[in-house]
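Repro:
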Amino acid sequence: MTTKRFVIQGKVPSKARPSSKAERVRFNEQSRRTIARVHAEEEGILPNTAETFFETDEAMKALFGDEK
């Protein structure tokens, strides 16, 4: 939803901005594993599995299945 609003409005929605409460967030096991994998991919430890998009419409279809 944040990505969709960013594309439509051209700015980050106010609810998506970090707040002081962000320090208290507790991630579930799947989130922790995903974050660890992303860090490993960024460091080159694991191969990068992220998709690359050159068109906004392609990204929106992949994320939401929308036909914009």
